[in-house]
Amino acid sequence: MLTMRATILLPEQLSLFEIACAIELFALPRPEFSSWYTTRVVSYENAPINGLCNTQFVCEHINRLPECELLVIPCYPVENTAVNEVMAEDILQHVQKGGRVISFCSGTFLLAELGLLEGRIATTHWQYAATFQSRYPHIPFKDDILYVYDGTLGCSAGSAAGIDLGIEVIRQDFGYAVANSVARRLVLPAHRNGGQSQFVSPATPNTLSSLSSALEWAVTHLADHPTVEDMAQKAHMTRRTFDRHFIKQFNMTPLNWLQDRKIETAQRLLETSDFNLDRIAELSGYKSAITLRHNFKQRLTISPIEYREQFKQA
């Protein structure tokens, strides 16, 4: 079994939900996969870590950070601006060696304190947005997205958005099919784009039902080359009204959503079928293999053939 090393690093103050999410995502044994993570849960604290309601958490004590490819920071005390010197040195060395770091919720504050967010977009829970922007005014900040991840560094909004970030990391590490399987076990959608909003806009049941029907129809008819106009018609809305409701609900345009579904379908077929590129292009909603190659490489920075070689399921 091929493995990737992951480390979940706990600070001196614990958020039980976030650590549980990190463990469920990266530390749960998954023998059904031919490749997966080997994960350690560690802390520099040589004592039980305190949580809410007089709870305590005990994990492996370390003096230095273990060698790993992925470092996960589930949480960090927002009020703490004095970072443990050994921890700071270890995390910076980890990044300098090419290691990746992702944080959930308040963990963004640790990344900022270490200077890792310089020149990058940051996000965190909306409750901490004002504090973050006041403390780090030089860091570009977005408070209406779920997560940001550039393949090296990632941070997420509140609590559950960390799961979305984790699923995205798994997808990039092991492919669409594996990420989808993990999401199903968590009873989650296969993938939520990081650009979606933290805030759920109110909508009438009829509007949600119409949007849902249109989206379901589009996904099941990609081979028929559906357009946004077709989706609006299925939702029984004008194009302008459809765009307005769609953006309010998903914080992205219908066209971008449709392009994402085409790419995801192509990824799934590349991983799980032996279809040639022409057939995959057809089933994914592209007019030709050339169009598929162009859009695929533009979105994922590798070609469909390279993707298949990396993620093809046995």
Structure description:
Keywords: Transcription, Transcription regulation. This is Helix-turn-helix domain-containing protein. InterPro entries: Class_I_gatase-like, DJ-1/PfpI, Homeodomain-like_sf, HTH_AraC, INH-QAR. The structure is a single chain. This protein has 314 residues and is an alpha/beta fold. It folds into two domains: 2-185, Class I glutamine amidotransferase (GATase) domain (Rossmann fold); 201-314, Arc Repressor Mutant, subunit A. The chain has helices at residues 16-26, 85-96, 107-113, 129-135, 161-174, 176-185, 205-220, 228-234, 239-250, 254-272, 277-284, 289-300, 304-311; strands at 2-10, 35-43, 49-50, 56-57, 60-61, 70-73, 100-103, 147-149, 153-156. The protein has a seven-stranded mixed beta sheet with strand order 5-2-1-6-7-9-8, sandwiched between helices. The radius of gyration is 21 Å and the shape is globular.
Features:
single chain; 314 residues; alpha/beta; Rossmann fold; Arc Repressor Mutant, subunit A; seven-stranded mixed β-sheet; two-stranded antiparallel sheet; 9 strands; globular
